[in-house]
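dumping this here so i dont lose it again. seq + smiles for flavin-adenine dinucleotide
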Amino acid sequence: MTITLTKEMQQMKEMIGHFVEREVEPYAIQIEEEDAIPQHLVDIAKDLGLFGISIPEQYGGIGLNAVGKAIVLEQLGRTHNGFVSLISAHTGIGSTGLVKLASEHLKAKYLPDMAAGTKIAAFALSEPGAGSDATNLATSAEKKGDYWVMNGTKHFITNGPIADVFTVFALTDKDKGAKGGISAFLVERDFPGLTVGKKDKKMGLRGSYTSQVIFEDCIIPEENVIGEVGMGYISALTILGEGRVGLAARAVGSCGKLIELSAKYAKERIQFNKPIADNQAIQWMLADMATETEAARALTMMAAQKIDEGKKVIKEASMAKLFASDVFNRVADKAVQIHGGMGYMAEYPVERFYRDARITKIYEGTNEIQRLIIARNVLEEC
Ligand SMILES: Cc1cc2nc3c(=O)[nH]c(=O)nc-3n(C[C@H](O)[C@H](O)[C@H](O)COP(=O)(O)OP(=O)(O)OC[C@H]3O[C@@H](n4cnc5c(N)ncnc54)[C@H](O)[C@@H]3O)c2cc1C
């Protein structure tokens, strides 16, 4: 598959490559130790327009298509995954509902600030009782005059502690459930009745915060429904489909970085009076890492191209997410192995990538759920 980049896209790719290598990567250890992203990095990301990559130009964003976004996210995936998570949750699952499904009024009201990064976005679907089974929502919203009144608790919400706007899914008709009874809402952090829980303690993704988001008689204006009332489950699938391609692109970027780090280390590390790269065992690991990464990239770009062609992409998005996240975990494991004991040390980036790889098999739908989606589509098609 050949993707020909425009001059502008090539320049953007290089600019982001420099940003992650020269600006972000030197702070990676600090982010790990402090579990916080230095504000100046967020400010540079805003200046580069990274918070607006998926937002149309008319609302102040860069308005990249899906292939463009995948290229940018692959570049970002080369550095600290926690830092990237802040941006990708905002530009991906946090923004897609508004960009693709919301009324003109909501777009004009919220997207310019989101594009500038002055309002941070989050996506709130998961609940303590509704993870893989996202149809089993307990959060409900009841229409009262010109307002909706929302009650319930979301959990594990990326950007939860820092978000200004949330795309929230709630039951609006218990009898219909996922078939016409779930709706999506744009909820501002300051709406009365919304509170955010404390930051979760996690295995990785340091600097990226997740938390509960709690709604207690939260008052939401009628106009803040995203898309049609009752169509929220379909909206969630659309948003997650695109998000999964972005996640796959980030995973491919991380794999690319791990291959470079591993090849460099293998050439420099001397054992038995020769570089460990001279051993076929090491070469085979590098060969598998490179081959699988190229395959993951091809699958990811194919899914992104299909989105740009306006085609149904549920199956391909799941394939890209499933394969790229599995590859990321295998590549990270081999990278640690090639680095030997050094790969287990926090001062080496492979240790961080190894921990950060793990979540990619779980969030935005576990890999078991991706297999269910793919199999359902295959059975329907054949
Ligand atoms: C760091 C982090 C960030 C997150 N960010 C967000 C966010 O921004 N917004 C949001 O809404 N959610 C977010 N999530 C939630 C995430 O999407 C869920 O954790 C995920 O969908 C899995 O749900 P669960 O944790 O309830 O696992 P469960 O659904 O309880 O699954 C447990 C295990 O059972 C398996 N399983 C379940 N059902 C089946 C089945 N039918 N067949 C086979 N296997 C099955 C699963 O694959 C998994 O292995 C985040 C989670 C984490 C950890």
